[in-house]
Amino acid sequence: MLFRMSLNRLFWLISILLMLLFLVLIGRIVSSEWAVYERSTKSMPAIRNLQLALLAEEKLAAERGPGNSLLLQEPDAAAKEFAGLDQARFASDRALASLRRALQMQAVPQLAPVIAHVASTEQALATMRKEMDLLLALPVRQRDVAAVDAVLQMMARADSGFAPAIVALADVAVRSDPQLSDGLEGALLASSLRNIAGRIGAVFTAPVIAHRPLTSQEIYAFSRLSGEISQLYSGIELQLRPYQDNPVLKAALDAVRDRYLGAGLGFLNELFAIGRSSGDYGLSAREMVVRYVPRMAAIPHLRDLVLAEMLQQARRQNRQAAFFLVAATVLGAVALAIFVLLMQVIRLRVLRPILDATDLFVSLADERFNTVIPMPRHDDEIGVMMRVIHVLKAHSLAKVRLEKQREEMIAQLQTLSDTDFLTGLLNRRAFFAQGEQQFGIAQRYRRQLTLILMDVDHFKTVNDRYGHQAGDQVLRVVADLCRRHHRKVDLLARYGGEEFLLMLPEIDLSQGFAAAEKLRCAIDSCDCQLDGGEIVNVTASFGVVAFECDNDLESLIGRADQALYQAKHSGRNMVVAAPRGKSDETIIFA
C-alpha cells in the first residue's frame, strides 16, 4: 500500500512518523532537564539559607570573645571591649534578623522549625545579655562567681544551641540536590573548625587576664580541642577533593593550613607552653586577640568560597537547564511547523539560507570576520541577501579599523596631556587628578599618606652659567633619579620649573623622610655630564609632610612648601619634615 501511495502523502506520513519520534525524544530531554531545573531552583535558596545560618553562628561565636573579657576585668579598664561587645551584638542581631527574614519570605513548611529555633535563639540571647549587663555594671570584686559562670554557660548554650538549625538547613539543601553533599559537608566542617578555633582561643582568655598558669581543666581542654582541629582539617581536605581542580578553593585550603594551623595554632602552642610553666605571657587579652583572631579569618573565607562555588554551580545548572528547556521546546515547535507547514523546497531554499544568514549576522555582530560567507547559488532574494552581507562585512571591517585607530589616537593624546614634555613625568594637572584620589582615600579611611616637595638648589645659576639646554638636561637627570627611587604605587610629577612632587601612599612621616633622604643623597652624589663635556653637581632641598587633618590636597602641598622653604633657608641640600601633630612647626633632619 505504501508503494501505491502518492509521493505527497508518503512525504507527509514519513514526516508525521519522524515528528512523533522527535517529540518523544524532545519529551525525554524536557523531562530530564526539568528535573535538573527544579532541583537547582530548590537548591539555590537552600544554599543561601545555609550561608546566612553559618554567618549567624559565626557572629554568635564572635560575641563571646569581648563578653568573656569584660566579665573578667574592671569595666573602666575595658572601654574598647565595651565598644567591641556592642559591635558584636549588633552583628549577631543583624545576622539572625537576615536569616529569619529569608526563611519567612520562602514560606516553606520544612523551614518552620528552623524559624522557631531562630526566634528562640534571639530570646535566649536577649536574656543572656540582660544578665551580663547587670554583672558588667558591678566591679569585678562584687560579681558573684556563680552568676558569672552562669552567664558564661548561657553564652555557650546560645552559641552551640544554634547548631540544630544549621543541621536542619543543611539537610534541606542536601535533599534538594544530593550532588551538593560533599561541598556542604566541607562547608559545615569549616564552620565547625571556625567555632573550635574560637573556643580554643577562649581557653587562654582568663589565664592571660589573670597572668596565671593554666589549670588542669584548661590544659585538658586545649589538648582535646587541638586534636579536634587536626581531625576537622583532615575531614575538610577529604570532602573538598572533588574541588581540588579549583585553584581558588585550593589556595583557600592552603591558607587555612598555613595561616591558622601553622601561624595561629603555633601562637597558641607558644602560650600553652608558657601557661604550663610560669604564666608570664607577656601580653594582654586584647593583644592576644589582635594576634590570634585575624589568623582565623582564613577559615570562614574557605567556608564562604565553598558555599559560593556550590551556589554558582547550582546557578549554572539552573541556567543550562532553563536554556535546554526553552531550546527543546522551541526546537520542537519549529520542527513541527517545518514538517507540517513547509515544503521540502522551502526548507532547502529558504529556511536553511536564513539560518545561515543569521549565523553570519551574529558573526558580524561579534566581530568574527574570519567567518566564510558563501557565494549565493541562486539569483533570488536569498542571493541578494548574501551579497548584502558581503557588503556589510566590508563596511564592518572598515569601521573596526577606524575605531581602533581612533582609540589609539585618544590613548596617545591622553598620555601626552598627562606627561611633562621635558622629563616624561606626570605634569601638574595629571598629578592633581590622580593625587586627589589618593588624598580622598587617605582622608576617608584615615590611611597614611606622605608628600615630598623637592626643589633643585641654585638651578638659576646652572641656567645662567651653562644655558637653558644644560638646565633642561639637569632636570632630566634629576627626573631619572626620582624614577629609580620611587615605587610603582607612588605618584611622581614635575610640579613646575625645578620643583618635583612625590606622593607616597601607605607611608608614614619617618618612612617618607627616609625616602627623601635617600633621594637627596643620590642627587648629591650624581655627576651630571653635559653635552659640552662639563660636569655639573647639583643638590636638592626637600620638604616632607604626612597627612593629618588637611582639608584638601592644596593644604597638604602648602605645608610641604613651608617645610621646603625651611630647608632652603637652613642651608639647602637637606630634608625638612613637618612632624605629625605640629603643623605650625618643622623639624630639620639633615
UniProtKB/TrEMBL annotation:
<protein>
    <recommendedName>
        <fullName>diguanylate cyclase</fullName>
        <ecNumber>2.7.7.65</ecNumber>
    </recommendedName>
</protein>
<keyword id="KW-0472">Membrane</keyword>
<keyword id="KW-0175">Coiled coil</keyword>
<keyword id="KW-0812">Transmembrane</keyword>
<dbReference type="Pfam" id="PF00990">
    <property type="entry name" value="GGDEF"/>
</dbReference>
<dbReference type="GO" id="GO:1902201">
    <property type="term" value="P:negative regulation of bacterial-type flagellum-dependent cell motility"/>
</dbReference>
<dbReference type="InterPro" id="IPR000160">
    <property type="entry name" value="GGDEF_dom"/>
</dbReference>
<keyword id="KW-1133">Transmembrane helix</keyword>
<feature type="coiled-coil region">
    <location>
        <begin position="392"/>
        <end position="419"/>
    </location>
</feature>
<feature type="domain" description="GGDEF">
    <location>
        <begin position="447"/>
        <end position="580"/>
    </location>
</feature>
<dbReference type="InterPro" id="IPR029787">
    <property type="entry name" value="Nucleotide_cyclase"/>
</dbReference>
<dbReference type="GO" id="GO:0005886">
    <property type="term" value="C:plasma membrane"/>
</dbReference>
<feature type="transmembrane region" description="Helical">
    <location>
        <begin position="321"/>
        <end position="342"/>
    </location>
</feature>
<dbReference type="InterPro" id="IPR043128">
    <property type="entry name" value="Rev_trsase/Diguanyl_cyclase"/>
</dbReference>
<dbReference type="InterPro" id="IPR050469">
    <property type="entry name" value="Diguanylate_Cyclase"/>
</dbReference>
<dbReference type="GO" id="GO:0043709">
    <property type="term" value="P:cell adhesion involved in single-species biofilm formation"/>
</dbReference>
<dbReference type="GO" id="GO:0052621">
    <property type="term" value="F:diguanylate cyclase activity"/>
</dbReference>
